[in-house]
């Protein structure tokens, strides 16, 4: 380069130097190219179409899926078709499904204005769940249906949802066999969704809220854990390990947000908030309830909610890596690491609380202190949340996107029946219960159907990921992993400039 310049005229020297500078700029731009949050948001919502149970609508975009489980509920003489398969299996577990619905709704309430055209997809994803949850709540007086499909039988099979030939056992809770956890979470889902539809479909919104109040009353009056009532039908799969008091608080908090009624405020106060975990998930709702309730203290200056603001901030101090009270591990690559099984579910849920509390703080220029001179600003929380989102989307040691179909390098062998088995159009013959193991489950080939937008369980504590279909704790996607990330993706899509 130098010798060429040496023999060139001054004008061409300038051109060459300019070209070099341009190349440097291009390289820098490529290297610092931010994640495309808008694309990730779109895909994170498309994923829910791949999890649909029941009769698929004409506008179904993931064409490799077809109608399935059309006669769910028949064993109880009710129609329980619809809803979502929770993960890579063919069971409908209402406890995580209701939490998924609550989180999708909360994300849409907080970040709907940043979603752009995707808000229609968000509402469609929520409604697919709430239509089913309404059936579960209203089909038989005195019963709340809480699941379809025997997990112990289903988990021994590897077959497409379209081919299911396993017994579609129906499970419910009642005053005699209570389930305050699943009922209060269902109430939270219906109440949160009622806010989403308040202006776009007021009639539907009122229906959701009316049933949310009824289901919550049932949860509160007949207290008990659904794990005790249903045993091996839900444990160890979605056992309510944290008990049901967190759901009673969460449900009351959502009903208070939806109604502003003193009755629910009094319930919230009576339930207290003595548990202060460092986790937030489909099982443990305390941190979510604290952040939800803290909004009144931060945005409205309501001193009655000061306690929840304090608890929300105690939670944040347990998450921040440099806080004296931090109890959260981070991998060398910067990923929050909570538990070995499906760690990304905790990452996405906690990230949602980080962006949301940051948003509340920013609105009032609020800051707080974790002790040891650690001052927390809205940007402190936002930066950690962004780091988690970016890690999931590919900014990690493996340079792998943990969202299927996003970027050029993502998991190809996810633990998911429909994705790993050929579609009906490619393989019209039925694949029985055992028929999917050979040659599909044990194959090293990539899955034939791309479950676009699915976020898998994620890497291990050393930032490693084997991309192995059999390693479900890392390779299985789940509705509640995705649902919690929709809000943060919308948040960053709305603030990014690209």
Automatic annotation (TrEMBL):
The keyword Flavoprotein does not apply. InterPro entries: 6-hairpin_glycosidase_sf, 6hp_glycosidase-like_sf, Glyco_hydro_9, Glyco_hydro_9_Asp/Glu_AS, Glyco_hydro_9_His_AS. Belongs to the glycosyl hydrolase 9 (cellulase E) family. One of its GO terms (molecular function) is cellulase activity. The gene is CEL3_2. It comes from Stylosanthes scabra. Residues 1-32 form the signal peptide. Keywords: Carbohydrate metabolism, Cellulose degradation, Glycosidase, Hydrolase, Polysaccharide degradation, Signal. This is Endoglucanase. It is an enzyme of class 3 (hydrolase). Residues 37-488 form the Glycoside hydrolase family domain. It comes from the Eukaryota. The active site is at 415, 467, 476. It catalyses: Endohydrolysis of (1->4)-beta-D-glucosidic linkages in cellulose, lichenin and cereal beta-D-glucans. Its EC number is 3.2.1.4. The keyword Signal applies.
């Amino acid at each position: 380069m130098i010798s060429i310049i040496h023999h060139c005229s001054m004008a061409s020297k300038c051109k060459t130097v300019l070209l070099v500078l341009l190349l440097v700029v291009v390289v820098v731009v490529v290297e610092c190219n931010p994640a495309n949050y808008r694309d990730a948001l779109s895909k994170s919502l498309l994923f829910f179409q791949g999890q649909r149970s029941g009769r698929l609508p004409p506008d179904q975009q993931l064409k490799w899926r077809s109608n399935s489980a059309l006669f769910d509920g028949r064993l109880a003489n009710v129609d329980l078709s619809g809803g979502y398969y929770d993960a890579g299996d063919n069971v409908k577990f209402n406890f995580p499904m209701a939490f998924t619905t609550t989180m999708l709704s909360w994300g849409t309430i907080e970040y709907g204005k940043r979603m752009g055209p995707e808000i229609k997809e968000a509402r469609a994803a929520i409604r697919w769940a709430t239509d089913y949850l309404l059936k579960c709540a209203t089909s038989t007086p005195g019963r709340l249906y809480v699941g379809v499909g025997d997990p112990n039988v289903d988990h021994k099979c590897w077959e497409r949802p379209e081919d299911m030939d396993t017994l579609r056992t129906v499970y419910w809770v009642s005053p005699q066999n209570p389930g305050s956890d699943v009922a209060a979470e269902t109430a939270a889902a219906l109440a949160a969704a009622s806010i989403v539809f308040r202006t776009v479909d007021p009639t539907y919104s009122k229906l959701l809220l009316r049933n949310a109040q009824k289901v919550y009353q049932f949860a509160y009056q007949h207290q008990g854990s659904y794990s005790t009532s249903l045993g091996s039908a839900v444990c160890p799969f979605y056992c309510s390990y944290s008990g049901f008091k967190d759901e009673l608080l969460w449900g009351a908090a959502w009903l208070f947000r939806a109604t502003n009624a003193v009755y629910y405020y009094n319930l919230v106060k009576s339930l207290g908030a003595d548990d202060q975990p460092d986790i937030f998930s489909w099982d443990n709702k305390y941190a979510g309830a604290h952040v939800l309730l803290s909004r009144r203290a931060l945005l409205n200056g309501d001193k009655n909610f000061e306690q929840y603001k304090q608890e929300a901030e105690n939670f944040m101090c347990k998450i921040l890596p440099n806080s004296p009270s931090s109890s959260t591990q981070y991998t060398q690559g910067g990923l929050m690491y909570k538990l070995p099984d499906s760690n990304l579910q905790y990452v996405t849920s906690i990230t949602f609380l980080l962006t949301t509390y940051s948003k509340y703080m920013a609105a009032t220029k609020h800051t707080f202190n974790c002790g040891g001179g650690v001052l927390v600003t809205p940007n402190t929380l936002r930066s950690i949340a962004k780091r988690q989102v970016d890690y999931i989307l590919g900014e990690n040691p493996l340079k792998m996107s943990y969202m299927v179909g996003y970027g050029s390098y993502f998991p190809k062998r996810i633990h998911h029946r429909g994705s790993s088995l050929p579609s009906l159009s490619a393989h019209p013959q039925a694949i029985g219960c055992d028929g999917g193991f050979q040659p599909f489950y044990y194959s090293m080939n990539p899955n034939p159907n791309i479950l676009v937008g699915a976020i898998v369980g994620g890497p291990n504590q050393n930032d490693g990921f084997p991309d192995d279909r059999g390693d479900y704790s890392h390779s299985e996607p789940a509705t509640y992993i995705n649902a919690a990330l929709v809000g943060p993706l919308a948040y960053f899509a709305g603030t990014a400039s690209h």
